[in-house]
Amino acid sequence: MDEPEHRPAPQVLNGRINGRFAPGHSGCPGGSPEATRRAFNKRFLLDLAEDWQQHGREVFKRVRRESPASYLKVCAMLVPREMKIEHKGGIKEMTDEQIEQPIEAIQTMLSARAGEAAKVIEGTVETVALPAPDVIPDGPNKVMDAADTAVGARKRKPRKVPSPAGT
Predict the structure, then answer these.
(1) pLDDT tens digits, residue range 73-88?
(2) Alpha carbon distance 90, 83 (integer Å)
(3) Distance CA 77, CA 133 (A)
(4) How crowded is the C-beta side of 52, counted as CA atoms within 13 Å?
(5) Is residue 21 a contact partner of residue 15, using CB atoms and an 8 Å limit?
(6) What are the DSSP E strand ranges found in the chain?
(7) How far, in Å, CA of 69 to CA of 75, rounded?
(8) Domain residue spans in the chain?
């Protein structure tokens, strides 16, 4: 029998054998950034909860007294900036009976209201001319002055119109 050809052990470079990851070597030795962030957030929140159990109320009271702006900033940061609302189902997935029941309930409520005495206010409309103002402002327009100040008033140079050729 022919003896099997002796092959040398594959050379492992940077955790790879011929461009492929060697057994026991990961392509991402530090782990995924998302998993790292989740692990950090979990540890941070657990430590924060423990600290809150020990000192939370006293710290909040002191911050509220000594630095109300910081206290309000923390409160505002707790309110979500955006809320994602997803609409699922809805009227498209309702049966005719499911749609007719609320309509009948609303019609019943409206007919019950119609039986109550409705309050009606009667009146007529008159057109009245407003009197002219007694005082006419004699100063500059403050609104336009503010706009000029904000933008910077600019003086326009007269445009030079080229003369027609041959004149």
Answers:
(1) 888 888 887 877 777 7
(2) 19
(3) 49
(4) 6
(5) yes
(6) 16-17, 20-21
(7) 10
(8) 16-78
